[in-house]
């Protein structure tokens, strides 16, 4: 399995993520493979790895061995055919992740799994535990789920930072946003959980400071029109900020204080952990988000 993942991904980090392993665990497994085969198998090349001639020579045999083991253990992934699949895939997430994923996922589905229809639902402020357990939901993706209940699995799809956004001709904000100016402005707060304290407020509180929040909104897209027509400021994920600036007269700026980033994490229930279609879905989401 490790050999096959490395051959497909050509990158140790992505291969580890594909197998739900830590990078050190995969590196140890590769070391054992090298001892068993008496060959390096995969060597560094640029930002990834490339197979040696020995690895390429045994690749087909390894693929057959993995397929045989999957069949032996009843792994539905071996039998799943995206091209022949029919039905729906349902994902609960935020409008931020929808914006990030849909333009990349839908063309991929059209080409590789045209019989599948993607349905997106709002995730709200907490993990949709019951829907995942019952099977009415295939996957939940957000950056705020925290510690998971027993029986759930997760996978990090991408890591994100924050940017501040103001209107392009803002009368106060110059090329660089100072902390003093930041604190003087009225703020919009995006809060899917419905509270009025976010990562910015926690970081400010550690410095004995506070900002003036004018309004809290549940979605990530609503602030764009408000910011474009006011002197307010909002702090949102960087990828989304850059995307919104393509359609609104907005300016993206680095925050005036260090802010911890966050991870967009996919969560699913044990009941679908080994299912072929669900495994394909999770791998597909990770694949289309590469480089996003």
Draw up the topology in text.
Blueprint: H1 2-9, H2 12-18, H3 23-37, E1 42-45, E2 48-51, H4 53-72, E3 87-93, H5 95-112, E4 116-122, H6 129-134, E5 139-142, E6 152-160, E7 162-167, H7 179-184, E8 186-190, H8 199-205, E9 212-217, H9 222-228, E10 233-237, H10 238-244, E11 250-253, E12 262-269, H11 276-288
Parallel strand pairs: 3-4, 3-5, 8-9, 8-10
Antiparallel strand pairs: 1-2, 5-12, 6-12, 7-10, 7-11
Helix pairs in contact: 1-2, 2-3
Give me a quick take on this structure:
With 292 residues, the protein is of the alpha/beta class.
Report on this model:
With 292 residues, the protein is an alpha/beta fold. The strands form 3 sheets. Strands 4-3-5-12-6 form a 5-stranded mixed β-sheet. It has a 5-stranded mixed β-sheet with strand order 9-8-10-7-11. It has a two-stranded antiparallel sheet with strand order 1-2. Helix 1 (2-9) packs across helix 2 (12-18) and helix 2 packs across helix 3 (23-37). A hairpin with a 2-residue loop joins strand 1 (42-45) and strand 2. The chain has 11 helices and 12 strands. 39% of the residues lie in helices and 24% in strands.
Number of helical segments with 4 or more residues:
11
Helix and strand succession? HHHEEHEHEHEEEHEHEHEHEEH
Rounded radius of gyration (Å): 22 Å
Approximate strand percentage: 15-25%
List its traits.
single chain; 292 residues; alpha/beta; 5-stranded mixed beta sheet; 11 helices; 12 strands; 24% strand; elongated
């Amino acid at each position: 399995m490790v050999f096959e993942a490395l051959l497909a991904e050509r990158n140790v980090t992505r291969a580890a993520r594909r197998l739900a392993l830590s990078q050190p665990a995969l590196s140890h497994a590769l070391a054992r493979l090298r001892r068993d085969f008496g060959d390096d198998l995969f060597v560094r090349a640029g930002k990834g790895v490339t197979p040696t001639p020995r690895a390429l020579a045994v690749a087909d045999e390894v693929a057959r061995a993995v397929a045989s083991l999957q069949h032996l253990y009843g792994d539905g992934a071996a039998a799943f055919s995206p091209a022949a699949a029919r039905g729906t895939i349902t994902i609960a997430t935020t409008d931020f992740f929808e914006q990030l994923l849909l333009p990349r996922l839908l063309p991929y589905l059209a080409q590789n799994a045209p019989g599948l229809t993607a349905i997106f639902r709002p995730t709200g402020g907490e993990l949709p535990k019951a829907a995942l357990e019952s099977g009415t939901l295939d996957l939940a993706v957000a950056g705020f789920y925290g510690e998971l209940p027993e029986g759930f699995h997760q996978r990090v799809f991408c890591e994100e930072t924050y940017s501040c956004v103001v209107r392009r001709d803002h009368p106060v904000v110059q090329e660089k946003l100072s902390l003093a100016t930041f604190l003087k402005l009225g703020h919009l707060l995006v809060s899917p959980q419905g509270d009025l304290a976010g990562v910015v407020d926690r970081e400010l509180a550690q410095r004995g400071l506070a900002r003036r929040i004018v309004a809290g909104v549940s979605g990530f897209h609503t602030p764009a029109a408000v910011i474009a027509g006011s002197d307010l400021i909002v702090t949102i994920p960087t990828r989304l900020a850059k995307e919104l600036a393509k359609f609104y007269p907005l300016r993206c700026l680095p925050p005036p204080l260090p802010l911890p980033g966050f991870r967009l994490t996919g969560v699913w229930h044990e009941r679908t952990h080994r299912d072929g279609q669900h495994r394909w879905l999770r791998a597909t989401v990770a694949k289309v988000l590469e480089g996003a």
